[in-house]
Write a structure and sequence with these properties.
- The protein is of the alpha/beta class and about 200 residues long.
- It has two domains: about 80 residues, Translation Initiation Factor IF3; about 110 residues, DsrEFH-like (Hypothetical Protein Ychn, Chain: A).
- It is elongated, with a radius of gyration of 17 Å.
C-alpha cells in the first residue's frame, strides 16, 4: 500500500498528489492519503468517486486517513483542479522560476536580502503567479528552515502551485527537509513552463 502525506496542503495540492500517486500504482493497489482539513477531504473524495473509486475514511488524532483502491476506470486526464473550492481569481497566467537562492548578479548577500523581500511581497500583490518553480540552489528557499517559508505557505494556500525539483533536492541531499510545495520532476516542470503565458526568472 502506498501512502502520501498531504497534511498542511491546500487544494489543489492534495488532489494533484493523489492523482500522481494513482498514476504510479497498479490497478487494485490501495492508496492511503493523509489530509488534515475537511475541505481538501471533500474535494479529494469527490474527485475519486467521480473516477469510479470508492473511498474509506478513518479519523485519527485529527488526521483523515482516506483509503482508496485504484480501479481500471481511473483516467489520468481528469482535471483535478476543477474540484477545488478555493478561489484562484487572484492568480495570473505567469510562472516564476527560481534557479538560485539570491536575486541579481551583484553581491550574493545583497541578493539574498533582495530575494527575501521579493518573495515576502508576493502574497501582498493583487495578481499573483499561478505557479512557482524551484530549481538548482533555488530549492533552499523551500526548506523547513527557509526565511521565506511562511510566505510560500501563504501563497500555496491562496492557490499558487509550488513545484520543487526532485533531482536538485537529491543532489544537495535535502529531500527530507522540504517544508512547502510538491517534489516534482523535470517533465512536470517543463510542462508548466511550456504552458505558461510568461515566465519570470528573478
Amino acid at each position: 500500500m502506498k501512502t502520501i502525506d498531504a497534511k498542511g496542503k491546500q487544494c489543489p495540492m492534495p488532489l494533484i498528489m493523489a492523482k500522481k500517486a494513482l498514476e504510479e500504482i497498479a490497478v487494485d493497489e490501495t492508496l492511503e492519503i493523509l489530509i488534515d482539513n475537511e475541505t481538501s477531504l471533500k474535494n479529494v473524495t469527490r474527485f475519486l468517486e467521480d473516477n469510479g473509486m470508492k473511498t474509506i475514511i478513518q479519523t485519527l488524532a485529527g488526521v483523515f486517513h482516506l483509503f482508496v483502491n485504484k480501479t481500471g476506470e481511473f483516467s489520468k486526464y481528469s482535471k483535478s483542479e476543477d474540484y477545488c473550492e478555493i478561489s484562484t481569481a487572484g492568480t495570473s497566467d505567469y510562472v516564476i522560476a527560481f534557479q538560485r537562492n539570491f536575486l541579481g548578479d551583484g553581491d550574493p548577500e545583497l541578493g539574498k536580502i533582495l530575494l527575501k523581500a521579493f518573495i515576502n511581497t508576493l502574497p501582498e500583490i493583487e495578481n499573483k503567479p499561478s505557479k512557482l518553480l524551484f530549481l538548482n540552489s533555488g530549492i533552499f528557499l523551500t526548506l523547513k528552515d527557509a526565511v521565506v517559508l511562511d510566505s510560500l505557505k501563504k501563497l500555496e494556500s491562496d492557490g499558487v502551485e509550488i513545484l520543487v525539483c526532485g533531482t536538485c533536492l537529491d543532489f544537495y541531499k535535502k529531500k527530507d527537509e522540504v517544508g512547502v510545495g510538491m517534489v516534482s520532476n523535470m517533465y512536470d516542470i517543463l510542462n508548466r513552463l511550456s504552458m505558461a503565458g510568461s515566465v519570470i526568472y528573478p
